[in-house]
Amino acid sequence: MRMFSRSVCVFILSVLLSFGLSLAGVFDRPLSVKNRPELEKSLAKVMDYEIATGDFKQTKSIQKLNRNFVSTGTFRISKKAGIIWKTQKPIFSELALNNGGIFERDSSGQSHMLLPKDNPIFTDLSRNIQSFFLGKISELESKFQIFYEKKSCGFVMGLVPRDGMVRMVIDNVIIEACNNIDKVTITDGDKTPVMLEFLNYKTVGKKLQKRETSTP
Amino acid sequence: MKFFNGIRLSAKTGIILWVAIHAILIVLGLSVPWKMDSDLYSILPDSNEIKNVSEAEKELSSRTVRNITVLVGHEDFEVARSAAILLDSMFKGDSSFEETRLFVNENAMNEMREFFFKHRYTLQGKTIREMFAKGDFESLKNRALQKIYGSFSMTDLNHLDEDPFLLGDAAFENFVQNSPMSLSRFVLRDSVLYATDSNATYVMWNAVLSKNVSAFSSEGHIVARMNRVLDSLKMAQPGLLVAKSGVPFHSFESSDRAKSEIAWISGVSIVLILLLLLYVFRSPVPILATLSTIAVGIFTALASTWFVFGNVHVFTFVFGTSIIGVSIDYAVHFFVHRKAGVRNVRSCIIKGLLLGFLTTELSYIALTFAEFSLLRQMAVFSIVGLLSAFLTITLLFHAVFENSIVSSEGTEAQSVPANLPTRLPAVFLNAYAKLPKWGVRLIFALFVLALLPGLKQLHIHTDIGNFYTMNDEIKASESLASKLNNLGVAPSYFIVEGKQDHILLENEELLTERLNQAEKEGLVKSYLAVSNIIPSGRFQAGSILDLEKLVFGIKKRWTEILINNELPQMLAPNVRNYLTEIGVENHSIFVKSLLLSQDFIDFEKIDKNDRFVDVDLKNDFPQSLSFLLQMLWIGHIGDKYYSAVLPLHVSDKFDAKKIAEGLSNVYAVNKMQNINNALTKISHVSLKLVCIAYAVVFLILVIVYKFKDAVRIIRAPVLASLFAASIFGYIGIDFNFFAIVGVILTLGIGIDYALFFKEGGRSNLTTALAIMLSAMTTIISFGSLACSAFVPVHTFGLAVLFGISCCFLISPFSAKR
To answer: Is A127 within 8 Å of chain B by CB?
Structure first.
């Protein structure tokens, strides 16, 4: 069961590491052979960095209680060193993913390991992250149904888990990106959406743009 | 007709007596339901001296020994999953299985979450309980806020009004952390559990064999059928990998190997014995008569053992076959003397036969005092079987065969019976005849001296771990299953006892405190215990009281609060602020839930008739929790409750006994080690009992033959047994329980040779031939078992081979020149 929850978390994390934004209409547009190269190219573009840093604003909307829980924090994604995800307000917590596994630090400063590096979920996660970083859509498709819509700036991508049990926890994920990932909306099995908006997105080590600019 | 020492018994009376005794023994056996026990585990001695603890261990083992796991692997997950589905469909509903499991219930997680939400105030783990007890509101609040505002948290916030501290989530997390799932490498995908290893994806299929499935192999055995199905799946799908794990596969493998091997050995030895008897007697009559004696003996022994014990273990049948050896010996003596022309064979051989019978019986009677049911069964089986054989020879054979004898007069055999192959016995006896007295003494002195170094090196020890060697396929399968399950159950574990279910859980909690310390010291990675998930009633009630104190900030009891209808007002200010902070407007929802939803869990419930009964572990809990409870909660044994606590991934320094030290209701168990110790202890006790029996035998012999002759008689089997033991010492093989059974057989059969030589005289060719024939049949039938690769059978055969061979060579010295 824990593995299951973890795998869901891992899935969300994998998604977040790469993208942003939401539009429910995207689910009318399944990824086709025709627009697949376009998605791959767009994905490669937003993932074109060595290190990405920025702020995020998370909004959990609990419709049953008619209540929104908003938190803010920072993130740092390094393709070599791993990921650090810090929630700063209203309460501190930190999640770190690196070669040793996944770790969590709470508001009292105590940290503990969530997943060791030899855990299969961690292996899965690493593989997924690699797929995202490298824009390998075919690998993503083995686990999700992919939906894609081109926008005037960037794209919207929808992901629906293929596994029924995963769907009981995560119904879908919508990612919106322009030059960077701007917004990710995760809707859980109870149709509760969690929206992540990314601000002050900064990247280091872009290659494509350099190449594009250097091309005569 | 003279029977023995002046007792006269007519042939007719003999037959009536024979029929009467056999009828009584058989009718007694038929009066109880017949049950053949083939459970390999049931032969093991009690591994704990405390009966209830031993019963608890057996109950625990009985649950796990029927479990099997098949891992169906392929580089493509879908292929592995399809093959596993096919396997499941083929065996689902099969009567040989109690249940099969492939798919994980899609609602399993929701069921678990709901269960722990319902019991959120009582089923908390140590960390949260400590927060309650210390009144640590800040930690409790921060933990909840982290879940509410943190990223990647899957906590359900829909019940925040009822559960603002997210205690349901905490209880669920505590379960996950304390369940085997926290270590397992299996994860869920498409409703099945899978894990990856060496580029292959393995889908897990589990099953529990029905209680009536035998551990012994047979053509239609479920394991044989499964093997065929798995082979066909592999044939149909190239690249499909299969790993089988579980005791039933080992039992099947080992019994299948042993069965075919013993069938070969027995087949060859029976043919050899028949040829030998045919060569000596040149007639099928003695052979048929001997076989009938054996058949009647075994049947009577079986019936009587059934009557005494209520069942007969198949091993009793196998190892209790000493009656075959003795039956053949008695019959051989009868027919050799008859063929030699002895007019009244019974009178001629009765003294030796009777003494041989009594001495052997005494050895077996001594064994009935050993506290090991298998040994007792073997002893009773042999006592009755021997009695039957003795009566058949002395009463029935005498009546049937001796009336028709047409031969020379007189009771003594001819010195050189022309119609018997006496050349070999003659050579054998001549060799002894030529030995001078000092030569005999020298031989004995050297012989005894030669025995000493071997005896000094003798290691009396039984290690059941050495009895079975896995084949490479099963070894690889077990290794893979163990790697993927990653449970790392240690050989040492704990059985905890309590007069009542909640007392048992309290006793467990005393143990888990020590295990938590051991965890901190790195002696153990984790452990499985019921009380980590379902705390004792004391802790469950304590949790609520502490939380009430924390939430209401006063020591007022909930009844007062309810009576005064002052629910929200009674909340402590910090709690009220927190609820407001997270947007909970109606505080009374939380207060009411805390005061009214105090669902305690225990292991007794009230049935329809208002009686307390044990809970149904399978149906009264959600599936995932039920699996864990079935693994750990043993339940009622006698008038107490028992559970198991299993340490996982222990270090070399982990000492279960030390951890349990001083805890009066906690027993450290190392089943394998305990059984080995128990078997070794039984071996020592058996040897002592046989020594006592032999002392009695010696006294009888002294009365019958005087001291010097008694020594001469008894030294043959005693020295032969020491010889067998010494050889075990020389070749460095453990002198285990089964070798000791072989030695007991040597003492039982071997003394007959000495007695017959004593009675027949050292130069009597008829006696020499009869003894030679007896020894050869015994060596062929039992000694050949030394060729078996099955360690218990091998050591038994080896001990008999050495013992009987030596006894045969020494026994001529029992008689005067």
So the answer is: no
For the beta sheet containing A82-89, the strands, ordered from the edge strand earlier in sequence to the opposite edge, are A111-116, A101-105, A93-98, A82-89, A67-78, A51-62, A193-204, A181-188, A170-177, A155-161, A144-150
Cα gap A21→A46, rounded to integer Å: 13
Residue-number span of the structural domain to which A21 is assigned: 2-214
Which chain B residues are closer than 8 Å to A56 by Cβ?
151
How many other CB atoms sit within 10 Å of the CB of residue B171?
Answer: 25
Q: How far apart are the first and last CA of chain A?
A: 55
| Residue B242 · residue B72 · CB < 8 Å | yes
CB spacing of A65 vs B583 below 8 angstroms: yes
Q: Is A83 on the interface with B (CB under 8 A)?
A: no
Q: Spell out the residues 6+ positions from residue B326 whose beta carbon is closer than 8 angstroms to its own.
A: B360, B385, B386, B389, B748, B749, B752
- Residues B266-300: tens digit of each pLDDT: 788 888 888 888 888 888 888 899 888 888 988 89
Q: A76-85: which pairs have CB atoms within 8 A and are 24 or more residues apart?
A: A76/A51, A76/A52, A77/A17, A77/A51, A77/A52, A77/A53, A78/A50, A78/A51, A79/A49, A79/A50, A79/A51, A79/A133, A80/A50, A83/A13, A83/A17, A85/A13, A85/B151, A85/B152
Cβ contact, residue pair A3, B181, below 8 Å:
yes
B95 reaches A (C-beta below 8 A)? no
- Token pair belonging to B769: 């031939």
CB-side exposure of B715: number of CA atoms within 13 Å?
17
Instruction: Identify the closest residue of chain A to B189 by CA–CA distance.
Output: A163
Cis amide linkage into residue A90, ω under 30° from 0? yes
Residue carrying structure tokens 């869901």: A8
Residues of chain B with Cβ-Cβ distance to A64 below 8 Å are 158
Summarize pLDDT for B191-228 with one digit per residue, the tens.
899 998 888 999 999 999 988 887 666 778 899 999 99
Q: Which of A11, A16, A36 is nearest to A147 (CA)?
A: A36
A199: contact with B, CB 8 A cutoff: no
The CATH number given to whatever domain includes residue A53 is: 2.50.20.10
Tokens of B802: 């050495």
Q: Find the helix packing angle between B472-485 and B247-281, rounded to 10°.
A: 160
Q: Which residue in this structure is represented by tokens 């044990």?
A: B614
pTM over 0.90? The answer is: no
Q: Which residues make beta-bridge pairs with A149?
A: A156
The DSSP result for B179-242, as a single string, is SGGGT---EEETTEEEEEETTEEEEEEEEEE-TT--SS--TT-HHHHHHHHHHHHHHHSTT-EE
Residue B402, both tokens: 């001796």
For residue A171, the 8-state DSSP code is E
Are B184 and A9 inside 8 Å of each other by CB?
no
CA distance B525 to B519: 6
User: Nearest CA of chain B to the CA of A203: how many Å?
Assistant: 22
Residues of B in contact with A120 (CB under 8 A): 185-187, 195-196
Q: What is the pLDDT of residues B30-81, one digit of tens each?
A: 888 777 666 656 666 665 556 788 888 888 888 888 899 999 999 999 999 9
Look at the domain B65-103+191-245 and name its fold.
Alpha-Beta Plaits (3.30.70)
Q: What is the pLDDT of residue B108?
A: 80
Which chain A positions have a beta carbon within 8 Å of B146's beta carbon? 87, 91, 93, 106-107
* Domain extents in chain B: 2-31+253-465+675-814, 65-103+191-245, 109-158+536-600, 491-534+609-653
Place of tokens 């043959």: B716
Nearest CB to B106; choose among A5, A8, A165 = A165
Q: Please state, in angstroms and as integers, the Cα–Cα distance from residue B124 to each residue in B174, B333, B677, following that order.
A: 7, 78, 41
Q: How many structural domains compose chain A?
A: 1
Task: Give the nearest chain B residue to A74 (CA atoms).
Answer: B151
ipTM over 0.85 threshold: no
